[in-house]
Amino acid sequence: MVSREVTIPVGNDQVIAAEVAGTPSNGLVLFVHGSGSSRHSPRNRHVAEVLQDAGLQTVLLDLLTEDEEPRDVRTREHRFDIDLLTRRVLRAVHWLRDQGRDEPLGLFGASTGAAAALIAAALEPEQVEAVVSRGGRPDLAMDHLGAVRAPTLLIVGGNDRQVLELNQRALEQLWEESSLVVVERAGHLFEEPGKLDEVASLASDWFRDWLATRG
Fold it and tell me: Please, which residues have CB within 8 angstroms of residue 161's CB and are 6 or more apart in sequence?
């Protein structure tokens, strides 16, 4: 699959890196990685490849700059800064629109990135058409969940009991078209054989259904 590297300005002469791949015949999906990760996340890249095969274009994004990332590895000061991460997601969304990209847009968030994706969807309801959360922490976005108008799919491993409970509570606050799917015998990272493929298939179906519906 052909891909290209881009940089997205985030203010104060800083940029974040992103990788665009696939063809947007069925919409565009922006990936929002979790704490301590990046656009190189093997799990997100696997899901992105499945979405690309389904006719979706994907944007794998670094939420931190080149200066911030090594500092965060040492101090962990940015990975739970949901306000910062949300601002970066919104910058990316606005940058895509400024590039003339008007395809229906979905957000795929993992772990803490799911919280940033949900807040961004709440703040920009006319821009974000659908959200998928993989092992997400929607509890970190709880104050904003009632304002999310994008249909949201929460995917949680059945063995990830604490996160499952957090997602069950979050589902009660989300729009009625949202859903929670439990992948049985899967942990937080879906590392068990075949489990990440289930996540990718669920995400692909969700985005194709909702982005095509809204598009």
Answer: none
Which domains are delineated in the chain?
A: 3-214 (3.40.50.1820)
Give the burial class of 50: count Cβ atoms within 10 A of its Cβ; 0-12 exposed, 13-18 middle, 19 or more buried.
Answer: middle
Separation of alpha carbons 30 and 24, rounded Å: 12
Give the C-alpha separation, 92 to 98, whole Å: 10
Distance CA 48, CA 92 (A): 17
Query: pLDDT of 10-36, one tens digit each?
Result: 988 999 999 999 998 899 999 998 766
196 touches 47 (CB < 8 A): yes
Amino acid code (one letter) for 113: G
SS3 108: strand
Residues forming a β-bridge with 105: 28, 128
How many Cα neighbours within 13 Å face the side chain of 36? 5
Tokens for 92, please give them.
Answer: 């990316």
